[in-house]
Amino acid sequence: MIQPVKEKIILGIDPGTTIMGYGILRVANTQAEMIALGVIDLRKYGDHYLKLRRIFERVTGIIDSYLPDELAIEAPFFGKNVQSMLKLGRAQGVAMAAALARDIPITEYAPLKIKMAITGNGQATKMQVADMLHRLLHIPTEDMPTSMDATDGLAAAYCHYLQMGRPAAEKGYKGWKEFIAKNPSKVKR
Q1: Which residues participate in catalysis according to the annotation?
Q2: Is 12 helix (H, G, I), strand (E, B) or coil?
Q3: pTM (2 decimals)?
Q4: Half-sphere exposure (Cβ direction) of 102: Cα atoms closer than 13 Å
Q5: CB burial class (10 A; 0-12, 13-18, 19+) of residue 112?
Q6: pLDDT digits (tens, 9 = 90+) for 24-45
Q7: 5-186: CATH homologous superfamily?
């Protein structure tokens, strides 16, 4: 049987070297609510090493502000451009180092797993992920960010929340359509 969590804060990060997205979830009992989301804009830094320093400073600042219990981070996907992959891996590593410096446990999730957990479709678009988070977490339209990187960070946190185990999983739902059909009050349409 799943034990309700008194309260847990989850920081989700979508690593990037131009824009890094993050989202913060508060989990109380078996309910999750978004408490913050945003981006770390790195476009004004021309030097990659300055970007890495800024990532470390901002992620540390976010951690110090929200005191997350756990970090969920999207694992880099494999691409054809080796240099881009190296830079993205470094950005992810620096964000992880900030969490490790504060003794925060880290869990990595593949992009496919995050999309599948949120939408039921591993090939979902960023917009589909954002729309599902908007509905599941009842985020007011005016609070939805224009950057999909922010919702991707929130998606990592929500995926981690789902992996913690919930009563819905015990009921044996076979997908989001069935969940929505059985729980219309939990989904904003």
Answers
A1: 14, 74, 149
A2: strand
A3: 0.83
A4: 23
A5: middle
A6: 999 998 899 999 999 999 999 9
A7: Ribonuclease H-like superfamily/Ribonuclease H (3.30.420.10)
